[in-house]
Specification:
This protein is an alpha+beta fold. It has 3 domains: 96 residues; 103 residues, Cupredoxins -  blue copper proteins (Immunoglobulin-like, Sandwich), CATH 2.60.40; 86 residues, Sandwich (Immunoglobulin-like), CATH 2.60.40. It has a 5-stranded mixed beta sheet with strand order 3-2-1-5-8. Helix 6 packs across helix 8 and helix 7 crosses helix 8. The radius of gyration is 26 Å and the shape is elongated. The termini are far apart. 26% of the residues are buried. Bound molecules: heme C and copper (II) ion (CU). Heme C (HEC) binds next to helix 7 and helix 8.
Length: 323
C-alpha cells in the first residue's frame, strides 16, 4: 500500500520546487496566488481531517458520542453555519488578496516586452526607452523591482505562455493581443513552457526567464542592443551566409537579415537553443546543426545534413562567439 502511494506522492512533490514551480512566488502577484493556494490546501486538509474524525466517531465511537452527532444543532452548526461562514470569509479574503485593479505595483514605468508564439519557439521583442526595438528568442530578461508588461500574440496557432514563478498562464490567440503584467521581486533563472498543445514539437517549446538586478539589467540591455561584432573576413561568417542561414536568421550588423527564424545576434549569450532544449555552448550548437530534426522533430528549420565536421565546428564557434 505504502509503495503504491510513493510514486504519486513523489510526482506531486515535483511540482513544489525547482525552476518551473508554481509555488515559487517570484513576483508580487505570484506570491499572493501561492499564499492563497497554501491557505486553501492547509484549510482543506484540516477540514478533511475533521470530517474523517467525525466519520470514525459516527461509525465506531461510543454510543453517547454518536447520539450527540445526530443532534439537530450539529447538523445546523457543522452542516450549514460552518460552510457558510468559512466560504464567505474565504471569498472576501480572496477579493482582498487578489485585488488586481488596485495593485500599486503597476504604477511607474513598465518594461514592455512582446512575446510572439511561433511553432515551436518564442520570438521576444524588447521595447527600449527610446522607442527602438531589438529581437531575441526563447529567453526573457527583466530587472527586479520594475513592473513588466508582456504583450502576447501568436504568428500561427494557439499557444499558451506559462511562466509559473512570475505569473499565470495566458493564451496566445490568433488575431488577438493578450497582456500579462507582473512585478518581479526575486532575481534568478526560472523556466517556462508552452501550455497549450500547438502541434508536433509542442512539448519541446520551453524558455528561460532571467530576473536580474537593476544594474545588471542596464548592462545587459546595452550589450543586447549593440550589433554583433563580426570581422568582415571571418570565414565562419562566410560559411553562415553561403549556406543560406542568413535567409532565415538575422545577425545584426552583418548581411544576415532573415526574419523567419530566431534572431541570432547574441545567441551565444543565451541560456538555451531550440527553445530550452540544448545549452548554448559549442557542443549545443554543433548538436543543433548536425541533428536538430532528430533532437526536435518537425521543427521549422530545414535539416543541414550536408555540413561536414569542419563546417559544423566553424559554425558552432561563430555562433558561440555571438555574445
Ligand atoms: C528556412 C529557414 C531557416 C534556415 C535556412 C536556417 N534556419 Fe536556423 N532556425 C530556423 C527556425 C524556424 C528555428 C527555430 C526552430 C525551433 O526551435 O523550433 C531555427 C533555429 C536555429 C538555432 C537555434 C536558435 C535559438 O535561439 O534557439 C540556431 C543556432 C540556428 N537555427 C542556426 C542556423 C544556421 C547556422 C543555419 C545555416 C546552416 C540555419 N539556422 C538555417 C529556420 C532556419
Ligand atoms: Cu504549444
Amino acid at each position: 500500500m505504502l509503495q503504491r502511494l510513493t510514486y504519486p506522492l513523489l510526482v506531486s512533490l515535483c511540482a513544489c520546487a525547482g525552476e518551473q514551480s508554481a509555488f515559487s512566488g517570484y513576483s508580487e502577484g505570484a506570491a499572493r496566488v501561492a499564499k492563497l493556494t497554501w491557505i486553501m490546501v492547509g484549510g482543506g486538509g484540516l477540514i478533511l481531517l475533521l470530517v474523517v474524525v467525525l466519520t470514525a466517531i459516527a461509525l465506531f465511537g461510543p454510543l453517547s458520542w454518536r447520539q450527540k452527532l445526530r443532534g439537530e444543532s450539529v447538523v445546523i452548526g457543522l452542516g450549514m453555519v460552518f460552510p457558510v461562514v468559512v466560504l464567505t470569509a474565504l471569498l472576501f479574503y480572496g477579493f482582498v488578496l487578489l485585488r488586481l485593479e488596485a495593485a500599486p505595483e503597476f504604477s511607474g514605468e513598465m518594461l514592455r516586452i512582446e512575446v510572439v508564439g511561433e511553432q515551436w519557439w518564442w520570438r521576444v521583442i524588447y521595447h527600449h526607452p527610446d522607442g527602438s526595438t531589438t529581437e531575441s528568442a526563447n529567453e526573457l530578461r527583466f530587472p527586479v523591482g520594475q513592473p513588466v508588461e508582456l504583450t502576447l500574440t501568436t504568428a500561427d496557432v494557439i499557444h499558451s505562455f506559462w511562466l509559473p514563478a512570475y505569473g499565470g498562464k495566458v493564451d496566445m490567440i490568433p488575431g488577438r493581443t493578450n497582456y500579462l503584467r507582473f512585478l518581479p521581486t526575486h532575481p534568478g533563472v526560472t523556466r517556462g513552457q508552452c501550455a497549450e498543445y500547438c502541434g508536433g514539437a509542442h512539448a519541446l517549446m520551453a524558455f528561460y526567464a532571467v530576473a536580474l538586478s537593476a544594474e545588471e539589467f542596464v548592462q545587459w540591455r546595452a550589450r543586447e542592443r549593440a550589433n554583433a561584432v563580426v570581422a568582415a573576413d571571418d570565414s565562419a561568417a562566410q560559411t553562415f551566409l553561403a549556406n543560406g542561414c542568413g535567409g532565415c536568421h538575422r545577425v545584426r550588423g552583418t548581411p544576415a537579415e532573415g526574419v523567419i527564424g530566431p534572431d541570432l545576434t547574441h545567441v551565444g549569450s543565451r541560456l538555451s537553443l531550440g527553445a530550452g532544449i540544448l545549452s548554448a555552448d559549442h557542443q549545443g550548437f554543433r548538436d543543433w546543426l548536425a541533428r536538430h530534426q532528430r533532437i526536435k522533430p518537425e521543427n521549422r528549420m530545414p535539416a543541414y545534413d550536408i555540413l561536414n565536421d569542419a563546417e559544423l565546428d566553424s559554425l558552432a564557434a561563430y555562433l558561440v562567439a555571438l555574445k
